[in-house]
Input
Amino acid sequence: MLGKVASAIGAAGGTIGAVDLVQVVGPHTIRDITVETADAADWPRLTDAVNAVPGARVLDATDRTFMLHVGGKIEIRNKSPLKTRDDLSMAYTPGVARVCSAIERDPDKAFQYTIKRNTVAVVSDGSAVLGLGDIGPRAAMPVMEGKAMLFKEFAGVDAFPICLNTKDPEEIIATVRAISPTFGGINLEDISAPRCFEIEDRLKAELDIPVFHDDQHGTAVVVLAALLNALTVTGQRIEDVHVVIVGLGAAGVAVANILMAGGVRHIIGCDSRGAVHTDRADYLDGSMHPVKRALAERTNLERRGGGPADVLEGADLFIGLSGARVIPAEALAKMNPDPIVFAMANPNPEVSPEEAAPYVRILATGRSDYPNQINNVLCFPGIFRGALDVRATQITEAMKTAAARAIADIVSSDELREDYIIPSVFNRDVVGAVAAAVADEARDSGTAEAGAEMGFASTEELRILPSR
Output
């Protein structure tokens, strides 16, 4: 029977790996067979082939990705052993009471004697998850767990996913405010626009710890880093660059803002109704959202109208933060010489990289299977590492710009070329450089907590501290 099943799998295009005996029940044998296929679309054909073998039946099918998520991807572990009565008396009663009393007298000691010093909450309502949209808090959990993994792997930050069963901004704000004593920072994630703007602004104003909406600012920081290096390749000044941004959700607005803070003077933003400007009907009748309204007043001063393809003429940089194939590749021919295209919709970019190639000098996407991947993981671990290290009370625009320049500087001048303007997400130099730049800017601006670095330098180091 095993031979018949193996033959059926092979004939259907599968390559058999491990074969494990699970159980023998009377005349039946249950086996776990690992099969390699070219694509998930092959799976129905393989299961049908096995089920067609007389006496054989597929009981269950899963894949390596699902197996990776079984039981969740993160866990909590104790840092100190609990093996003796003495261990217990220090970790819990009666010794813990002394630590609690010390924190009661001086709340700042929570950063020294609890997880607060190195812990970030990853908060989402599941309303704007990756390319999936509004899938709800339960379905969003695998993404938030993945975010927590990235925090730990790249920056040593302990992050915990918190998915909220509400889309009400007031409830989200109240919940995050209520849990904030536990955490040293708040990373907002996958909350749809325009609610995300109000939620972040309110929490930044009400909390004394950093609040950072990664979908906005993480994307913006990495885009600025990529642009700085792209302009070095093309020999252009940032002040002279004409930019078209397609997609004015959370990321699009943040990208426009950080580019203007970085020196860009000419931006046209496009949403689903076309180019945004102060002569557009929804601006004039007051129905345009206040965030987009503020952007209209600072960009597209020539008040050019039309869709993305209509405003590309004379542009040096196209930034896509919208959806698949929003412009035809031929429209890129309208751009100025040495055009730069950042097409970042995932999984399918605004323009096919293969089709765009003849028209552009530098191309970047959000995907890992093309050169120049613009990925938020280059940003948020280092930003929070630096902010936590100096106990910054907020993450400022200057700190974000410093992070972007640090990312750009990782690519040395002799390495810089059209297909390498941004470092790999696996470059372990990135987090340290970003953290140092963010920490330095926080100190210089007074955002860092005075004396914060007198605490433990890391979770592994213990020093004798002077009393405060």
About this structure: The chain has 18 helices and twelve strands. The two ends are 75 Å apart (CA to CA).
